[in-house]
TrEMBL record:
<dbReference type="InterPro" id="IPR027417">
    <property type="entry name" value="P-loop_NTPase"/>
</dbReference>
<dbReference type="InterPro" id="IPR003439">
    <property type="entry name" value="ABC_transporter-like_ATP-bd"/>
</dbReference>
<keyword id="KW-0547">Nucleotide-binding</keyword>
<keyword id="KW-0067">ATP-binding</keyword>
<comment type="similarity">
    <text>Belongs to the ABC transporter superfamily.</text>
</comment>
<feature type="domain" description="ABC transporter">
    <location>
        <begin position="5"/>
        <end position="236"/>
    </location>
</feature>
<dbReference type="InterPro" id="IPR017871">
    <property type="entry name" value="ABC_transporter-like_CS"/>
</dbReference>
<feature type="region of interest" description="Disordered">
    <location>
        <begin position="307"/>
        <end position="330"/>
    </location>
</feature>
<protein>
    <submittedName>
        <fullName>ABC transporter ATP-binding protein</fullName>
    </submittedName>
</protein>
<dbReference type="Pfam" id="PF00005">
    <property type="entry name" value="ABC_tran"/>
</dbReference>
<keyword id="KW-0813">Transport</keyword>
<dbReference type="InterPro" id="IPR003593">
    <property type="entry name" value="AAA+_ATPase"/>
</dbReference>
<dbReference type="GO" id="GO:0005524">
    <property type="term" value="F:ATP binding"/>
</dbReference>
<feature type="compositionally biased region" description="Low complexity">
    <location>
        <begin position="313"/>
        <end position="327"/>
    </location>
</feature>
Length: 337
């Protein structure tokens, strides 16, 4: 596997008279390898767009090392720009142009053969609507036109910032199918989102960002497995007596909202059914509680952290010990790329 995107220790601070200094990205790391559909997850304002803008040279980073398709970015990005399609700022189209004309102009400007326009319209499922004016397009169709424009160059790497934003379930599903078909055709996709169910369905790898820092990264199933507490949902006729029996067997049991129990500490579900069955309590339901990305995301990015010191999966960009302040001065690191 070769790295398609590498980001190490990216830091970006915004300065404004009104809000003062704001650290948007704070020692962030990201690794996307060839062939991945990589989800980039984080709450609102966690630094996703800023990271992607910095990667593509749309905003100047304070420090950090970045490469795209092996070239240092943004310095040598032009060398690989022809192989990268990106939608980071929602593109504006002329409403009076048809989808076809829009893409034809972009193709001509980018030195792409006009025949490619039909191909990308087909790819995003707009081939039968290409002759209509963009102002008559739904939001989902405009999103697909944007993706089509990013595909004109037949990119090896596609970077999409919140492509599912504002789409209805059918639109989200189409976007998902499109990303899958691109991945099947060998395109590496980096897609940011805060729609967790979507990321779980589409992506094989994920990086979670919180307050400008990476808090989890890896294969989706491994990130989920790392948060599996091996608990079971248990339904029995007498939950209180069941809880007592489970406690006596050194298991944990907590009431669930609808009269069921959440039982932990059992290596194997048969332990639970045996403990209860032996006392004449028959288990009506015994379901393993698998973590989903939403619960992991909330655990990693939500409450329970020390303010300003979100967890980081590795040491990079960690605040100096004793610092509990989100504004950490790492300026002395300098730009090393
Ligand atoms: N041009 C800017 N000037 C000042 N602050 C900015 C600017 N752009 C972003 N920020 C701040 O940087 C932080 C990260 O913003 P960013 O847009 O990267 O978050 P995001 O993860 O993309 O959020 P969302 O999910 O809402 O799109 C926020 O606190 C935001 O207010
Ligand atoms: Mg954003």
């Amino acid at each position: 596997m070769s790295a398609v995107i590498e980001i190490e220790g990216l830091r970006k601070t915004f300065h404004s008279l009104r809000n003062g200094r704001r650290v948007a990205v704070d020692g962030f790391d990201l690794l996307v390898e060839a062939g991945q559909i990589h989800g980039f997850l984080g709450p609102n304002g966690s630094g996703k767009t800023t990271t992607l803008r910095a990667l593509l040279g749309l905003v100047r980073a304070d420090s950090g090392r970045m490469t795209v398709l092996g070239e240092p970015s943004p310095q040598l990005l032009p060398r690989v720009a022809g192989r990268v399609g990106a939608i980071v700022e929602s593109p504006q189209f002329f409403g009076n142009f048809t989808g076809y004309r829009t893409l034809r102009l972009l193709a001509r400007a980018g030195g792409v053969p006009i025949s490619r326009v039909h191909e990308v319209l087909e790819q995003v499922g707009l081939h039968d609507r290409g002759d209509e004016r963009v102002k008559g397009y739904s939001l989902g169709m405009k999103q697909r036109l944007a993706v089509a424009s990013a595909l004109l160059k037949d990119p090896q790497l596609l970077i999409l910032d919140e492509p599912a934003n504002g789409l209805d379930p059918a639109g989200i599903r189409e976007m998902r199918d499109l990303m899958r078909s691109l991945a099947a055709a060998g395109v590496t996709v980096l897609v940011s989102s805060h729609i967790l169910g979507e990321i779980q369905l589409i992506c094989d790898h994920v990086t979670i960002i919180s307050r400008g820092r990476r808090v989890a990264a890896g294969r989706v199933d491994e990130v989920l497995a790392g948060h599996d507490r091996h608990e079971f949902l248990v339904r029995v006729a007498e939950p209180e007596r069941a809880a007592e029996l489970l406690f006596a067997a050194e298991l944990t049991a907590a009431a669930h909202d609808d009269g069921a129990l959440v039982v932990g500490g059992a290596s194997d579900p048969t332990v639970i059914s045996r403990v209860l069955g032996e006392q004449g309590l028959w288990v009506g339901e015994l379901t393993p509680l698998r973590p989903d990305l939403e619960s992991v995301f909330l655990e990693l990015t939500g409450a329970g952290q020390h303010p300003g010191v979100p967890r980081q999966v590795d040491g990079s960009g960690l605040p100096p010990s004793g610092s509990g302040d989100v504004v950490i001065d790492l300026d002395e690191r300098g730009v090393d790329a």
